[in-house]
From TrEMBL:
Signal peptide: none annotated. This is Shikimate 5-dehydrogenase. Transmembrane segments: none annotated. SUPFAM superfamilies: Aldolase (SSF51569), Aminoacid dehydrogenase-like, N-terminal domain (SSF53223).
Length: 423
C-alpha cells in the first residue's frame, strides 16, 4: 500500500505570512497536504496561491461557501455529500479535484454507511467518510466500512476516519488503508479530536522500512497529557501516543485493541485501573503484553524505582503521593533496606526534611501548605513536566534531584524485552 498523505489543517489564529510559515514548517516536518477550511478563515485572510506554492492545498467547505480563488489554487476541493438540511449537497468541483466527504452525526453500521455512498460520483473523485466514536469497539465496524468502501470505489480513493476522545488508535489503524491521514502539528490546537501527531505519523513511516510484507502489531502508550512522552521515540515502530481523558474508558480501549496491538506502556492515571481490569496481582501496572487472546500485565516501574532509590542514597525516604509509581517504590524499598514514609495530601502538616520522591504528575497541583527545609526531592517526571515540578520544589524550599530520565530508561529497557515476547 502507498502511505497515506499526511494532511495538516491551518489553525484559525494564523493568516497571511504566518500561514505560509506554518505551511513551510509542516513541509519540513513531513506533511504532504495543507488544509484550509471556510469555517476557520475568511476568504481574504489567506493567499491560497502562496500556500499552494509550499504544499498541495486541500480547500474544505464547512458552512460558508468556498471562494473561487481558493478552488482555483486547490489540489482537491472537499464538499459534503449532504447539506445542512440533510439533503444532497452540491459536489461541484473542477475535473480531478473533488473530494466527496460525509461527516455522520452518530456511529453507523457498515450497511448504513454504504447507503450514504450510493450517489453517483466522478471516477476521479476521492471519498472521505467520518464518524464520531463514543464506543472503542466501533473500531471493528469502521474497519469493515473502510474495506467495503474500498471495494466499491477502489483502494486508492477512500479515507475513513473516527473522531472523538477515544478515536486516536482507530485512526492509526485506519491510516494503513486510507488515502489521507489527517494529523495534528502539535500544540494546543487540533483540527478534530482523535488526531495523532504529525511527528508520530512520520516516525511510523520511517520505521516501515523494517518490514517487507505485513506490518507488525502496533505498540502504544496510554495516558493523559502525554504529549511530552519520549516512548514513541525509543521503542519499535509503529508506536502510538494514545492520549485519553482522565475519566476515559481505558478498559474498553485496551479490550477493543487487543487484536491489533502487541503491547502498551501505561502511565498516569491508568496504572491502577488497568491492574484491576486485567486481574493482575499487582496494585499498579505500567506494561501490557499480548498473550494470544488476553493481556498480561507487568510493572517495569520497579526497575526505575530501584534506580531512583539507589541514586538518592538515603535510608529514610518520604514519598509524595500514593499512586502507581509509589507502588513500584514500595515493592523494591525493603529489598534495598529503605524505609518509605508515604504521604498523601492530607498527611502533610509540617515542612519536610531529608530525602524524598515527588510522584504527583505536574497537572496535579500540590497542597498549598507543602514546604521543604533542606530536603532533596527526586523528580521522576522528565522533559517539560519534570522541569515544572523541579521549579515548584525550589519555590517551596527544596532541592530537586532530576531522576526522571534514569527512571524512564530503566523501565523502558524491560518493557522492550517483554514486548518482544508477545504472542
Amino acid at each position: 500500500m502507498t502511505p497515506a498523505r499526511r494532511v495538516v489543517t491551518l489553525p484559525p489564529t494564523l493568516s497571511g505570512d504566518d500561514a505560509v510559515r506554518f505551511a513551510r514548517d509542516g513541509q519540513r516536518r513531513g506533511a504532504d497536504v495543507l488544509e484550509i477550511r471556510t469555517d476557520l478563515h475568511a476568504p481574504d485572510a489567506l493567499s491560497p496561491e502562496a500556500l499552494a506554492a509550499v504544499l498541495p492545498l486541500l480547500v474544505s467547505e464547512r458552512g460558508e461557501p468556498l471562494p473561487a480563488h481558493w478552488v482555483a489554487a486547490a489540489w482537491r476541493v472537499d464538499r459534503d455529500l449532504m447539506d445542512a438540511s440533510g439533503q444532497q449537497g452540491s459536489l461541484a468541483a473542477p475535473p480531478g479535484k473533488l473530494l466527496a466527504s460525509h461527516h455522520a452525526s452518530r456511529q453507523l453500521s457498515t450497511d448504513e454507511a454504504l447507503q450514504l455512498w450510493e450517489r453517483e460520483l466522478p471516477a476521479d473523485a476521492l471519498v472521505k467518510h467520518v464518524e464520531p466514536m463514543t464506543d472503542p469497539a466501533h473500531l471493528v465496524t469502521l474497519l469493515e466500512t473502510q474495506r467495503r468502501l474500498a471495494e466499491r470505489f477502489g483502494a486508492t480513493r477512500v479515507t475513513v476516519l473516527g473522531m472523538g476522545a477515544v478515536a486516536l488508535p482507530t485512526r492509526a489503524l485506519l491510516a494503513r488503508r486510507n488515502v489521507l491521514d489527517y494529523v495534528a502539528m502539535g500544540g494546543a490546537w487540533v483540527a478534530a479530536p482523535g488526531q495523532r501527531m504529525l511527528d508520530d505519523a512520520v516516525r511510523e513511516l520511517r520505521g516501515a522500512d523494517r518490514y517487507t510484507v505485513d506490518p507488525p502489531l502496533r505498540l502504544g502508550i496510554l495516558g493523559t497529557s502525554i504529549a511530552h512522552s519520549r516512548s514513541p521515540r525509543i521503542h519499535q515502530q509503529p508506536f502510538d501516543r494514545i492520549d485519553l481523558p482522565e475519566d476515559g474508558p481505558v478498559e474498553a480501549v485496551v479490550d477493543a485493541l487487543l487484536p491489533h496491538y502487541a503491547g502498551f506502556a501505561v502511565t498516569s492515571p491508568f496504572k491502577l485501573r488497568l491492574a484491576k481490569h486485567t486481574g493482575s496481582s499487582l496494585d499498579a501496572i505500567n506494561t501490557l503484553v499480548r498473550r494470544g487472546d488476553r493481556w498480561e500485565a507487568f510493572n517495569t516501574d520497579t526497575f526505575g524505582a530501584r534506580k531512583v532509590l539507589e541514586r538518592l542514597g538515603a535510608r529514610d525516604v518520604f514519598v509524595l503521593g500514593d499512586g502507581g509509581a509509589t507502588s513500584a517504590l514500595r515493592s523494591v524499598a525493603t529489598e534495598l533496606s529503605r524505609d518509605l514514609r508515604v504521604l498523601r495530601r492530607a498527611d502533610i502538616r509540617a515542612p519536610l526534611t531529608g530525602a524524598g520522591v515527588w510522584t504527583w504528575p505536574d497537572r496535579v497541583p500540590a497542597p498549598d501548605d507543602l514546604r521543604f527545609e533542606g530536603a532533596r526531592v527526586a523528580v521522576i517526571a522528565y522533559g517539560a513536566p519534570g522541569r515544572r515540578i523541579a521549579a515548584e520544589i525550589v519555590r517551596r524550599g527544596g532541592t530537586p534531584v532530576l531522576l526522571g530520565a534514569a527512571w524512564f530508561v530503566a523501565q523502558a529497557r524491560r518493557q522492550r524485552q517483554l514486548w518482544e515476547s508477545s504472542t
